[in-house]
Every structure is written in C-alpha cells, then in structure tokens.
C-alpha cells in the first residue's frame, strides 16, 4: 500500500512538472509574439542602446581623479540571422543616435557580411578586415586590430587580463586604481552603487566580501547554493530564465548572445560542483541578467523580469556571503 502510494505521488509530480513546462513555454511564446508585434519597420533591423549613459574607457580615466563606477553600455551587434535587437528605450523623446560598426564607422547593413571580435564584441565588415564569409568558417578566433594592439602592449584589465570591452560593467579599485569586470570579482552592477569604497582581491583578499567571493567552495557552501537557486526559481519573475531560450521563438538569439546561460544550466553546474568559487556562480547569474537586457527592449516583460529578479538576487547573495564569512 505504501509503495503504491509512493508511485502515485511520483506520477503526480511528473504530471505537474509537465503542466508547468507547457504553461511556461506558452507564456514565453506569447510574450515573444507580443514583442515581435511591437517591432515594426526598421525597428526590426536596428539595435538601440539599452543604457543612455556612456563613459570613457578605463585607460582614459586613470591619470586624473578616480572615476566613480563605470556604467555598462549595452547595444546590440548585428544579428546574424537578419533580425537584430528590438529598440530599447522607454518613452524618451527624440530619436536615439544610430549605432555605428566596423573601422568605417557605418550603421548596420543587413546586406553585408560581418565578423565579430572575440575579445571586444565589436563587429566588422568582412571586406574591411580582409575576411570572406568562406574564410570565416575555418577561423577559430578573430581579434580586431585594436584588441591585438591592446594585447601586445599589455593594456589589459581585470584578473582575466582582457582588453577593455565597453559592453561590460567594470568596477575600479580605490587602492590600486585598476579596473575589474564585476563578473570576475563577484560584484553585480546594481550593488556596486551602494559600495562606498571598493578594494579588489589583489589588494585585500581577506576582506569580508572578497573572502566570500574568492574562497574555495566546500560541501556546506554548495548546500547554500542549492537552496538559493531554488529560491530564485520560485520567484515570480524567474519564468523567462527557467530554461535555455528556444531558437524557434527567438531565431536570432544565439547569433547575438555569445554566452547564453539560464537557471536550469546554473542549477546543473551547482549539482555537478562545477563552480570553484562563489564569484564564478555570481558571474553566471550576472551574465544571465546582462544577456536578457542586451537582447530585449527596456519596456519588454523580459527586461523588467531581469531587473526584478536581479534585485532579489542581490539581497540573497548578500545573506549568503555573510554566512560564508561566519564560517571562516
């Protein structure tokens, strides 16, 4: 009798999961269709900046007073499948400045072939950099002239030693004045504004925040991560992030987003203990939110869900860091 009841409960759980998956897929598809209807004419072909604020590269700011916090500028690359990002923006008057690409600084032209730099996310006409579409199929890496120069002259930033990338958020260390990707040091852009003084792991590895972000994770730490990922999955704004984006619903997504990530993949990495440090887990979460804001218009439900879930995540990760420090 007990065995039969257990089997019935298991079957019921499977049915509930199927129903939830069907409902989630239908909701996502409906929102995608609604979003496509909003995009009309040239709006389907042009990508608009998500953020209106633009700042100079770190290298241009180092000599004088310390810049506050660098804002992430986010605008879409040309879509490989024809359709690019929808227009972001939310109600501002006037037309936004058109995004320029390549060495020739011209707007995106869907009739031309583009190749993307693997370091800076900028896009270039094949004819301007001497690469044909056929040649690109055998390329393992393309690095633009500016990034090659930066790499050769050691103008590299962060723990990962990469050239400056204007599409990513950086935070400046108040002590050494070096710049770091928020992803690499475990700092979200939304929490950086509340940090009065930031000291990087190179300068002060054992500060509370750096200790929590950079320590090697143990079995107890992974229990905390498993609990956190479940809390995120149960949040009302998590539905766009539950599983990988369906290419049938967003055909150009994987041409635009170079590093796709979702809660299902993150949960799998937690269960496999793929993360060595908390900063790596935070990096994947940050990437997930950034991808969503990069691809979707500001006034879309997807963008709003990213903002809502990220705010919730900031609160939860703060509590988790405190627990890691307590167990120091």
Automatic annotation (TrEMBL):
Residues 22-95 are annotated as: Disordered. Residues 22-39 have a biased composition (Basic and acidic residues). Residues 78-93 have a biased composition (Gly residues). SUPFAM superfamilies: Bromodomain, FYVE/PHD zinc finger. Residues 48-61 have a biased composition (Low complexity). The keyword Phosphoprotein does not apply. InterPro entries: BPTF, Bromodomain, Bromodomain-like_sf, Bromodomain_CS, Znf_FYVE_PHD, Znf_PHD, Znf_PHD-finger, Znf_RING/FYVE/PHD. CDD domains: Bromo_gcn5_like (cd05509), PHD2_3_BPTF (cd15560). Transmembrane segments: none annotated. GO terms for cellular component: NURF complex. Residues 99-150, 155-206 form the PHD-type domain. Keywords: Bromodomain, Metal-binding, Zinc, Zinc-finger. It comes from the Eukaryota. PANTHER family: NUCLEOSOME-REMODELING FACTOR SUBUNIT BPTF. This is Nucleosome-remodeling factor subunit NURF301.
């Amino acid at each position: 009798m007990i065995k039969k009841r257990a089997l019935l409960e298991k079957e019921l759980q499977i049915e509930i999961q199927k129903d939830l998956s069907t409902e989630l897929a239908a909701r996502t598809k409906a929102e995608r269709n609604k979003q496509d209807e909003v995009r009309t004419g040239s709006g389907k072909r042009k990508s608009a900046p998500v953020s209106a604020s633009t700042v100079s590269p770190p290298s241009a700011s180092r000599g004088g007073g310390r810049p506050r916090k660098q804002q992430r500028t986010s605008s879409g690359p040309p879509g490989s499948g024809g359709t690019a990002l929808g227009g972001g923006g939310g109600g501002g008057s006037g037309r936004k400045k058109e995004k320029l690409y390549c060495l020739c600084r011209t707007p995106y032209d869907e009739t031309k072939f583009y190749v993307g730099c693997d370091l800076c996310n900028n896009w270039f006409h094949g004819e301007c950099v001497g690469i044909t579409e056929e040649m690109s199929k055998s390329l393992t890496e393309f690095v633009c002239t500016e990034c090659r120069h930066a790499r050769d002259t050691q103008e590299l930033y962060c723990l990962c030693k990469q050239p400056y990338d204007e599409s990513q958020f950086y935070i400046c260390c108040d002590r050494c004045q070096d710049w770091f990707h928020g992803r690499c040091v475990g700092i979200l852009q939304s929490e950086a504004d509340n940090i009065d003084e930031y000291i990087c792991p190179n300068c002060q590895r054992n500060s509370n925040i750096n200790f929590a972000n950079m320590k090697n994770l143990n079995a107890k730490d992974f229990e905390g991560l498993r609990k956190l990922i479940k809390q995120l999955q149960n949040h009302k704004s998590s539905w766009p992030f539950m599983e990988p984006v369906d290419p049938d619903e967003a055909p150009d997504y994987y041409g635009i987003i170079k590093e796709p990530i979702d809660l299902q993949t993150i949960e799998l990495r937690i269960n496999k203990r793929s993360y060595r440090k908390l900063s790596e887990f935070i990096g994947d979460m940050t990437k997930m939110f950034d991808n969503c804001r990069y691809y979707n218009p500001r006034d879309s439900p997807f963008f709003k869900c990213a903002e809502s879930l990220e705010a919730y995540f900031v609160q939860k990760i703060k509590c988790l860091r405190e627990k890691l420090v307590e167990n120091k």
